[in-house]
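Hi V.,

You were right to ask for the full record rather than a summary. Here it is.
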Amino acid sequence: MARKKKGLLLVVSGPAGVGKGTVNAELMRRHPEIRMSVSATTRAPRPGEIDGVHYFFRTKEEFDRMIEENAFLEYMHVFGMNYYGTPRAFVDAEREKGNHVILEIDVKGAMRVKETCPDAVLVFIAPPSLKILKDRLVGRGTETQESIDVRTATALEELKLLPKYDYMVINDVVDEAVSEMECILTAELCRTDRNHDLINKLTGGETI
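Predicted structure:
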């Protein structure tokens, strides 16, 4: 009988244009037990957005109450307008079911999650080179030169925090990057500190 384990929390960061979304989407396509974390926000729903699917839409008062109750793994105030945060309850519930949860977030948010959830697995998706990252941004055809320069400078700052992550995955070929993410999942599930119950049985003289 397969042993049911608590799911992992994968915190995935990387510069704009590196392909985080593409890698995560393919990983979830291959593994139905992986969920994308749903954030809470105080902004109004946009046409077609569904509460609990795209975001948990909350009033400012509700969001403040959640902050007071320590209900977020992390949260931030964006551009002095709306609040965004990662509800702890959603993540915990999915992990208890044995599902893995991906939290795609910037490096500052990742560092906060590392403090509030010490068993989170931090993965940094990196480009093969900064030149290739810049070429990808140019190739989008949606960025101004000023925007590209800002994003490139931001990428340099984000890369400085790379040593604080558990793993680095280079996204050169998407299939290879996804395969490396799968290897990370397998390795983490085999860690002794995630298998206390089985270790206790094995070392407790359980009769076979």
